[in-house]
Structure formats: C-alpha cells, structure tokens
Amino acid sequence: MSLKSIDIEVFGRCIRVNCPDKNSSDLYYIANILNERLEELKGKTGVSNIEQLIFITALNLCYELEVEKQKSMHCVKHLKSRMMILNEMMNSALPKE
C-alpha cells in the first residue's frame, strides 16, 4: 500500500499528512466534517482560541466513540446470548442418537 502526502485544511490551517492513496478522498471528507464541528462549536461557545476548540472537539469525539463502543459491546453480548439460546433450542429439538 503506497502512501501519498496530501494537504488538508483544518480550521484555516494547512496540514500535510500521509495517507494511503485509496483513502485520500475519505481524509478530505473527514477533514470537512471536523471543520464543520469546529465551526459549530465556535458558534455555540463563542470560544475563538483554535487550540481550545480542537481540544474540546477531540474530547467530544472521544466521548462519542466510547459511547458507540459501549453500545456495540452491548449488542455483541446480546447477540451471543441469543445465539446460545437458539443453539440450546436447536439441540433440544434435534433427536438424540
């Protein structure tokens, strides 16, 4: 997988990053989402310090990611439980040899 050096703009600052060739369009898309979040936070809070906005946004993203991880883990546990119940039902329904 070859890396490509691309320039993205985040909140008015140009940042050069390396990413796989096939992911460059995704990176531009994500940078746009980040810019939108930063602008939204700036509008809501009135904070204009870029560093502070980035840290708050990073904390919010980490929190959201953790919440989604917890939801995912809960779903996996639920599915495993349901699969075990289904397996037990199938085993009891099948004739014993």
Automatic annotation (TrEMBL):
Record-annotated membrane-spanning stretches: none
Annotated localization: Cytoplasm
Superkingdom of origin organism: Bacteria
GO cellular component terms, semicolon-separated: cell division site; cell septum; cytosol
Keywords: Cell cycle, Cell division, Coiled coil, Cytoplasm, Septation
Subunit and interaction comment: Homodimer. Interacts with FtsZ.
Record protein name field: Cell division protein ZapA
Organism: Buchnera aphidicola
